[in-house]
């Protein structure tokens, strides 16, 4: 069990929380004592997550790429639960493709969710927290915001923008007692990873190669990332802002 202590009425919103890292993060914050708002585009998956979590869990169906949807989400939570203390900006989509051949439509769709929607959620959360005395915003970036990997250029750019935004927003929002940090996962064993691995010509060889490149010699699991978010959301991190915490087994430290 977590030993993190949060006020009994604290509320956390986790975007993209219907699978993988988002679901694990929602579960961890719920375990920490937060009222947790799960968001996503799948009502079926969202309701299943909330049913698994039990009391203090709520689902809000949202497509964050739509105009005004982030504002509607945050205001809905504040109106119905009473406040928003933590927002975890996790909603994202993957993208791979040879950089010189990526169609403009794929670039736009990747940035729409990974970058523009994340910025919009941060803005909406920041406006609300400014009114209520502060809070914590945690963006999920990626190891690929800091390193180069062939075929991942567009995804890297979309996540790199959020890493840069995190540092700038932390400085600008500090006077309002709003902390802004990021977590940068490495390769994580999620359904997305399993789908990618299965599509490789030799999945077993690729899996061994991936692990061999990680100093700690294992993949992350969603709970590893969720634990980092839990810390940054906790009172124990109240003097931390503007940082990006790698959760990658030492990959970017090589």
Summarize the structure.
The protein has 254 residues and is an alpha/beta fold. 46% of the residues lie in helices and 15% in strands.
- The CATH level-2 architecture is identified as 3-Layer(aba) Sandwich
Unreliable stretches (pLDDT < 50, length at least 5) are none
**Count of spatially separate domains:** 1
Number of strands: 7
Q: What Rg is obtained from the alpha carbons, in whole angstroms?
A: 18 Å
Task: List the topology elements.
Layout: E1 11-14, H1 20-31, E2 35-40, H2 43-53, E3 57-61, H3 69-81, E4 86-89, H4 104-132, E5 135-140, H5 153-173, E6 178-185, H6 191-198, H7 203-212, H8 222-233, E7 244-247
Parallel strand pairs: 1-2, 1-4, 2-3, 4-5, 5-6, 6-7
Helix pairs in contact: 1-8, 3-4, 4-5
Description:
The protein is α/β, with parallel strands linked by helices and 254 residues long. The protein has one domain: Rossmann fold, CATH 3.40.50.720. Helix content is 46%, strand content 15%. It contains 8 helices and 7 strands. A 7-stranded parallel β-sheet has the order 3-2-1-4-5-6-7, sandwiched between helices. Helix 5 links the parallel strand 5 (135-140) and strand 6 (178-185). Helix 3 packs parallel to helix 4 (104-132). The longest helix is centred in the middle third of the chain and has 29 residues, at 104-132. The chain is globular, with a radius of gyration of 18 Å. The two termini are 33 Å apart.
